Amino acid sequence: MNLLIRLIITLFKFRVDKNFKINQVITQNFYVLPNDLDLHGHMNNGRYLTIMDLGRLALMKQSGLLKIVKQQKYLPVVGSTTITYRKELKVFDKFTLKTQITHMDDKWMYILHEMWRGEQKVASAILKGLFIKNGKSVPTQELLDKMGMQWPANQQKPAYLDNFDITADEVFKDNINA
């Protein structure tokens, strides 16, 4: 139930911002609720990713992309995600989620999520995602055109994305016993 409430709050809190920049940071504050906990008394590792979904929803809402996605019947798809957990979050801890598109190529958007408890980073994730329509990927330039935005010409691809495209299947192809 708490996820539904968080979803509704996200949808109502964030409005389309006409001055939104495509690489702008979206910030949301949350508390760890009892439903977020695992058997060890800290936030479940899967819950981090679920809350990060709300960050992407807020980003889509504020940028105007959510309206376009609905109108065009685009489907958002996650290609891959990698996450690093640095510190635990316990019940009733207040934390901040920061979400930002850090890079785009012809097909993919790369989104950085960071969770902070005060001045301490507790988790960070990078996600590679795209939109599809009728089984085909939608070029990022088409999305930008519909949003009336451009990717900043001077913004370079972050170095941490250089090795991001390797998949677990590639890493473990010789190590998996069928």
Structure, explained:
The protein is an alpha+beta fold and 178 residues long. The protein has a single domain, classed as Hotdog Thioesterase (Thiol Ester Dehydrase, Chain A, Roll), CATH 3.10.129. The chain is built from five helices and six strands; from the N terminus they run αβααβββββαα. Strands 1, 2, 3, 4, 5 and 6 form a six-stranded antiparallel sheet that branches. The longest helix is centred in the N-terminal third of the chain and has 19 residues, at 45-63. The radius of gyration is 17 Å and the shape is globular. The model has no long low-confidence stretch (mean pLDDT 90).
Note the total helix count.
Answer: 5
Regions with little confidence, pLDDT below 50 for 5+ residues: none
Write the CATH homologous superfamily.
Hotdog Thioesterase
User: What's the shape?
Assistant: globular
Query: What would CATH call the architecture?
Result: Roll
CATH level-1 class: Alpha Beta
What is the tally of beta strands?
Answer: 6
Indicate the radius of gyration in whole angstroms: 17 Å
The CATH topology = Thiol Ester Dehydrase, Chain A
How many domains make up the coordinates? 1
User: Helices and strands: which structural class?
Assistant: alpha+beta
**Span between termini:** 39 Å
Largest sheet: 6 strands, antiparallel
SSE order, as H and E? HEHHEEEEEHH
Percent in strands: 25-35%
